[in-house]
C-alpha cells in the first residue's frame, strides 16, 4: 500500500485501466450483460466482444468482493476494491506458498517461503495497490493449484483432486499462463513414471485434473474448444494415455502369474503404443493445416526466443516480452538467486515425488524467465519455495549444532562436556534419547498415512546417516550471517517496493538537485482535456499503448488498444504515423479520426515516448504494407533524429507531431531523451492543427483539419474539373495505404 500512501488511490499501468472499466460495467449491468457486451468504443470501426475475449477471473473476483462488502453496508467504490484486490491476493499467495512448501519439507520451510514471497520484489511489482492486472490473482491460483496437486499426490484423496480441478479452473479464468500448469504437471507425471515411481496416488492426482480441468476450462469463453484443439494442451492428453497404459500394466501384474504377466505386458504395451501412435497421427493431422502448428505466437516465442522478432513484431515490441538482463535477476529476486541452488540440493535429501515436482518447477520457470522478463513473476514463487527450504535446512543444522554443544541445555549435558567446541561426527547410535524420541514421533504420525497408501519417505541406512555437528563458534557465526543476509533482503525489498514499484506509470515523479519532488501529471491532464473538450463520438488515434487509458479515462473511441488482437489494424495506425503528413491525413480521415494523440518526452527526458517506439511502428506497418521500409528511416543503420536523419524520417507524421514548435522551448531544439539537437526545427503543419499540449509537453493532441482547408489559396479550377473532383469525392478515394 506504499503507492496509496505516497500518491493516492489510483490504478497503475495500462492494462489495469481496461480491467477497471470492465469491472465498472459488470457491477453496473450484471453478469449476463457482461458476457454479451459488445464494446463499440474500442477498435473502431470493428469493435470488440468483451465477454468472449477476456479472462474473467479478475473481474468476477473484484465484482464479487464489491457486491459482498456493499451488501454488508460497507460503502466502498468499485475503484477502491480494484486498487486493493492485488494486495489482498498477495497475502493469499503467501499462504498458498506456505501450504505448498509445508507439504514438501515441513512447516519450518513453509513459514520461511511465505515470508520470502511476501517481500520478493518480482511479485511486489504486480501486487502493489493499484496493480489491477490478471497476475494479481493468477499467482495465487498458480501456487494454490500446485499445492493441491502435491496434497493429492501425498494423500491420494479424491476430495483434494476435485479441489485441484476447481483451482485449475479458477486459474484458467484468471490468466493465459494456465498453460504452464497443464504442461508442468504432465511433465512431472511422466518423470515419475519413467523413474519407476508410479502409484495409485499419482493416478488420482492426475487423471481427475485432466478430465474435470479440461471440461471446466472449455466453459471459459476465451478458451472454449482451444482446451482440446491447441498444441499447448496436447502434452496432457498424451500423458493421460500413458498413465492409463501403465496403470493397466500394474493391475494385470497383480492378478496374473509372472509368466502370463510377460505375455500380457507385451500385449498391453503393443496396444498402448498403437493407440499413442494413432493419437499422435491424429494430432499431427489436426495441426498440420495451421502455419504455427497449433501453437500461439507467445508460446512459440517461449520455445523459440527469436520467433517473435522474425515473424510477429507486435509481440516483440512489448517491453515485457523482451529477455531480462542479468541485473534484473538481482533486482527482482536478490539473494534468492544464491539460495536456490542450495534448495535444489536439499530437495534431493531425500528425493520424493513432491520435492521432484518443486525441482522441475524451478528449472522450467528459470528457463521461461530467461525468455521473457514478464515471466520473472512465475519464477518468484519457485525461488521463494526453494530458498525457504534452503534456509530452513541450514537453520536446522546450525541450531542443532549449537543445542548439542551449549552447556545447560536440558537433555544434552554429556554432549556439552564431551564436545568442547570441536567439530565431530556423531553416529546415529550416539544421538541422545530425547532426539531419538523426537525423530520417532513423525514415524508414528505416518502410520495413518501408510494406511492411506501414502508414500513413506525413504530412510537411509545407519552407515549412510550421519549427524554433522559443527563447531560452536562456526555455527553461531553462520546463524548471524544468515540473519544478516535476511536483513539485507528485507531492506532491498522495502526499497524496491517504495521506490521502484510503487510509482504509478500514469503519474510520474522526479527529484531535483535540492531534494525537491516534481510531479508530472500530464497523462491525466490530457485525458481530462479530451473528456471535457471533445464530442462523445469523436475518434482518437494513438499508438496502441494508450488505448486502454484513453477509453477508460477520457471515454472516447479509439482505433487500437492494448489487446493487440488485430495486427492489420495496428499496422494501419503504424503506417499512418510513418507516412508523410498528407498520406497520414488521408488514412486517418478514411477511418473517421478527428484527433491524434502522441506522447513526447524530449522536454522533460521521459524515455518511453513515441519517438523511441517509432521503429516498432515502422516494422509493424511494414509487415502488412510493404511500401513502408525500415531502412528508409535509418542513416547507415542508425536511428537518428538530428541533422543526419533521412528525409523520410524528418517528413513523417510522428516526427512532425512530436517536434512541432519544439524549438520554442529552449531556442535550440535539444532533445533530452536522445541527447541531440533535432534535424528539422522550423516547419508548419498543413493537415493537422495543435489543439492541446500538456504542461510538461509529455502529451500532445492534434486535430485533423477539415478537407475544405486543403484547397485554400489555390487557383480556381474550371467547372468541369470541379464536377469531376466532386464525383470522385462521392465515389470515394482509392485506399490511401496501398
UniProtKB/TrEMBL annotation:
<feature type="transmembrane region" description="Helical">
    <location>
        <begin position="329"/>
        <end position="349"/>
    </location>
</feature>
<dbReference type="InterPro" id="IPR003674">
    <property type="entry name" value="Oligo_trans_STT3"/>
</dbReference>
<feature type="transmembrane region" description="Helical">
    <location>
        <begin position="356"/>
        <end position="373"/>
    </location>
</feature>
<feature type="compositionally biased region" description="Polar residues">
    <location>
        <begin position="415"/>
        <end position="426"/>
    </location>
</feature>
<feature type="transmembrane region" description="Helical">
    <location>
        <begin position="264"/>
        <end position="288"/>
    </location>
</feature>
<dbReference type="InterPro" id="IPR048307">
    <property type="entry name" value="STT3_N"/>
</dbReference>
<protein>
    <recommendedName>
        <fullName>dolichyl-diphosphooligosaccharide--protein glycotransferase</fullName>
        <ecNumber>2.4.99.18</ecNumber>
    </recommendedName>
</protein>
<keyword id="KW-1133">Transmembrane helix</keyword>
<feature type="transmembrane region" description="Helical">
    <location>
        <begin position="136"/>
        <end position="161"/>
    </location>
</feature>
<dbReference type="GO" id="GO:0005789">
    <property type="term" value="C:endoplasmic reticulum membrane"/>
</dbReference>
<feature type="region of interest" description="Disordered">
    <location>
        <begin position="709"/>
        <end position="738"/>
    </location>
</feature>
<keyword id="KW-0464">Manganese</keyword>
<comment type="similarity">
    <text>Belongs to the STT3 family.</text>
</comment>
<feature type="transmembrane region" description="Helical">
    <location>
        <begin position="379"/>
        <end position="398"/>
    </location>
</feature>
<keyword id="KW-0812">Transmembrane</keyword>
<feature type="transmembrane region" description="Helical">
    <location>
        <begin position="234"/>
        <end position="252"/>
    </location>
</feature>
<dbReference type="InterPro" id="IPR048999">
    <property type="entry name" value="STT3-PglB_core"/>
</dbReference>
<feature type="domain" description="Oligosaccharyl transferase STT3 N-terminal">
    <location>
        <begin position="4"/>
        <end position="386"/>
    </location>
</feature>
<dbReference type="GO" id="GO:0046872">
    <property type="term" value="F:metal ion binding"/>
</dbReference>
<keyword id="KW-0479">Metal-binding</keyword>
<feature type="domain" description="STT3/PglB/AglB core">
    <location>
        <begin position="537"/>
        <end position="596"/>
    </location>
</feature>
<feature type="transmembrane region" description="Helical">
    <location>
        <begin position="203"/>
        <end position="228"/>
    </location>
</feature>
<keyword id="KW-0460">Magnesium</keyword>
<feature type="transmembrane region" description="Helical">
    <location>
        <begin position="167"/>
        <end position="191"/>
    </location>
</feature>
<keyword id="KW-0472">Membrane</keyword>
<dbReference type="GO" id="GO:0004579">
    <property type="term" value="F:dolichyl-diphosphooligosaccharide-protein glycotransferase activity"/>
</dbReference>
<dbReference type="Pfam" id="PF21436">
    <property type="entry name" value="STT3-PglB_core"/>
</dbReference>
<comment type="subunit">
    <text>Component of the oligosaccharyltransferase (OST) complex.</text>
</comment>
<dbReference type="Pfam" id="PF02516">
    <property type="entry name" value="STT3"/>
</dbReference>
<feature type="region of interest" description="Disordered">
    <location>
        <begin position="415"/>
        <end position="460"/>
    </location>
</feature>
<keyword id="KW-0256">Endoplasmic reticulum</keyword>
<feature type="compositionally biased region" description="Basic residues">
    <location>
        <begin position="709"/>
        <end position="720"/>
    </location>
</feature>
<feature type="transmembrane region" description="Helical">
    <location>
        <begin position="106"/>
        <end position="124"/>
    </location>
</feature>
<keyword id="KW-0325">Glycoprotein</keyword>
<feature type="compositionally biased region" description="Basic and acidic residues">
    <location>
        <begin position="432"/>
        <end position="460"/>
    </location>
</feature>
<keyword id="KW-0328">Glycosyltransferase</keyword>
<keyword id="KW-0808">Transferase</keyword>
<comment type="pathway">
    <text>Protein modification; protein glycosylation.</text>
</comment>
<feature type="transmembrane region" description="Helical">
    <location>
        <begin position="81"/>
        <end position="100"/>
    </location>
</feature>
<feature type="transmembrane region" description="Helical">
    <location>
        <begin position="49"/>
        <end position="69"/>
    </location>
</feature>
<feature type="transmembrane region" description="Helical">
    <location>
        <begin position="467"/>
        <end position="491"/>
    </location>
</feature>
Amino acid at each position: 500500500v506504499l503507492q496509496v500512501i505516497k500518491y493516492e488511490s489510483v490504478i497503475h499501468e495500462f492494462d489495469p485501466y481496461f480491467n477497471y472499466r470492465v469491472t465498472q460495467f459488470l457491477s453496473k449491468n450484471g453478469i449476463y450483460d457482461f458476457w454479451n457486451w459488445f464494446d463499440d468504443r474500442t477498435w473502431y470501426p470493428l469493435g470488440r466482444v468483451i465477454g468472449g475475449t477476456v479472462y474473467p477471473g479478475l473481474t468476477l473476483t473484484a465484482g464479487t468482493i464489491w457486491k459482498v462488502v456493499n451488501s454488508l453496508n460497507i460503502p466502498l467504490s468499485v475503484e477502491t476494491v480494484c486498487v486493493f484486490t492485488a494486495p489482498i491476493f498477495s497475502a493469499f499467495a503467501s499462504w498458498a506458498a506456505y501450504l505448498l512448501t509445508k507439504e514438501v519439507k515441513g512447516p519450518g520451510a513453509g513459514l520461511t517461503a511465505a515470508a520470502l514471497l511476501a517481500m520478493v520484489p518480482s511479485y511486489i511489482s504486480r501486487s502493489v495497490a493499484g496493480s489491477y492486472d490478471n497476475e494479481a490473482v493468477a499467482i495465487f491460483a498458480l501456487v494454490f493449484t500446485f499445492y493441491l496437486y502435491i496434497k493429492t499426490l501425498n494423500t491420494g484423496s479424491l476430495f483434494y483432486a476435485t479441489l485441484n480441478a476447481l483451482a485449475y479452473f479458477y486459474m484458467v479464468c484468471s490468466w493465459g499462463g494456465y498453460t504452464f500448469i497443464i504442461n508442468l504437471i504432465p511433465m512431472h507425471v511422466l518423470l515419475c513414471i519413467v523413474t519407476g515411481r508410479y502409484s495409485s496416488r499419482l493416478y488420482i492426482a492426475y487423471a481427475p485434473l485432466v478430465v474435470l480441468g479440461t471440461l471446466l476450462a472449455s466453459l471459459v469463453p476465451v478458451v472454449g474448444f482451444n482446451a482440446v484443439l491447441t498444441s499447448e494442451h496436447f502434452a496432457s492428453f498424451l500423458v493421460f494415455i500413458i498413465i492409463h497404459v501403465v496403470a493397466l500394466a500394474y493391475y494385470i501384474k497383480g492378478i496374473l502369474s509372472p509368466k502370463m504377466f510377460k505375455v500380457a505386458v507385451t500385449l498391453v504395451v503393443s496396444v498402448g503404443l498403437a493407440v499413442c501412435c494413432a493419437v499422435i497421427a491424429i494430432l499431427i493431422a489436426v495441426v498440420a493445416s495451421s502455419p504455427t502448428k497449433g501453437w500461439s505466437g507467445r508460446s512459440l516465442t517461449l520455445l523459440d526466443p527469436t520467433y517473435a522478432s522474425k515473424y510477429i513484431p507486435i509481440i516483440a515490441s512489448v517491453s515485457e516480452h523482451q529477455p531480462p538482463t542479468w541485473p534484473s535477476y538481482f533486482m527482482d529476486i536478490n539473494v534468492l538467486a544464491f539460495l536456490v541452488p542450495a534448495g535444489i540440493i536439499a530437495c534431493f535429501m531425500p528425493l520424493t515425488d513432491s520435492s521432484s515436482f518443486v525441482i522441475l518447477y524451478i528449472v522450467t520457470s528459470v528457463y521461461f524467465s530467461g525468455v521473457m522478463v514478464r515471466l520473472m513473476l512465475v519464477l518468484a514463487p519457485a525461488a521463494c519455495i526453494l530458498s525457504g527450504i534452503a534456509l530452513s535446512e541450514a537453520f536446522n543444522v546450525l541450531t542443532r549444532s549449537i543445542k548439542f554443544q551449549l552447556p545447560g541445555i536440558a537433555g544434552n549435558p554429556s554432549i556439552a562436556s564431551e564436545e568442547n567446541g570441536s567439530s565431530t561426527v556423531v553416529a546415529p547410535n550416539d544421538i541422545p534419547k530425547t532426539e531419538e524420541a523426537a525423530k520417532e514421533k513423525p514415524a508414528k504420525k505416518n502410520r495413518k498415512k501408510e494406511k492411506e497408501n501414502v508414500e513413506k519417505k525413504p530412510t537411509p541406512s545407519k552407515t549412510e546417516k550421519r549427524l554433522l555437528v559443527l563447531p560452536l563458534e562456526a555455527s553461531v557465526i553462520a546463524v548471524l550471517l544468515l540473519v544478516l543476509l535476511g536483513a539485507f533482503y528485507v531492506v532491498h525489498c522495502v526499497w524496491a517496493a517504495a521506490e521502484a514499484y510503487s510509482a504509478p506509470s500514469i503519474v510520474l515523479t522526479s527529484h531535483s538537485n535540492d531534494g525537491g519532488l516534481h510531479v508530472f501529471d500530464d497523462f491525466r491532464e490530457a485525458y481530462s482535456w479530451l473528456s471535457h473538450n471533445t464530442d462523445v463520438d469523436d475518434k482518437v488515434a494513438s499508438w496502441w499503448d494508450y488505448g486502454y487509458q484513453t477509453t477508460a479515462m477520457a471515454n472516447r473511441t479509439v482505433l487500437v488498444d492494448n489487446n493487440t488482437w488485430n495486427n492489420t489494424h495496428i499496422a494501419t495506425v503504424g503506417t499512418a504515423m510513418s507516412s508523410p503528413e498528407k498520406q497520414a491525413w488521408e488514412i486517418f480521415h478514411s477511418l473517421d479520426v478527428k484527433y491524434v494523440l502522441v506522447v513526447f518526452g524530449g522536454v522533460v527526458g521521459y524515455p518511453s515516448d513515441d519517438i523511441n517506439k517509432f521503429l516498432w511502428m515502422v516494422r509493424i506497418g511494414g509487415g502488412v504494407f510493404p511500401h513502408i521500409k525500415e531502412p528508409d528511416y535509418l542513416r547507415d543503420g542508425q536511428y537518428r533524429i538530428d541533422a543526419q536523419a533521412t528525409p523520410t524520417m524528418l517528413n513523417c507524421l510522428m516526427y512532425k507531431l512530436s517536434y512541432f514548435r519544439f524549438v520554442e522551448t529552449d531556442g535550440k531544439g535539444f532533445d533530452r531523451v536522445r541527447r541531440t539537437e533535432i534535424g528539422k526545427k522550423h516547419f508548419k503543419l498543413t493537415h493537422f492543427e495543435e489543439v492541446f499540449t500538456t504542461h510538461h509537453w509529455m502529451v500532445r493532441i492534434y486535430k485533423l483539419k477539415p478537407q475544405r482547408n486543403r484547397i485554400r489559396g489555390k487557383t480556381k479550377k474550371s467547372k468541369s474539373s470541379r464536377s469531376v473532383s466532386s464525383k470522385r469525392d462521392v465515389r470515394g478515394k482509392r485506399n490511401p495505404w496501398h
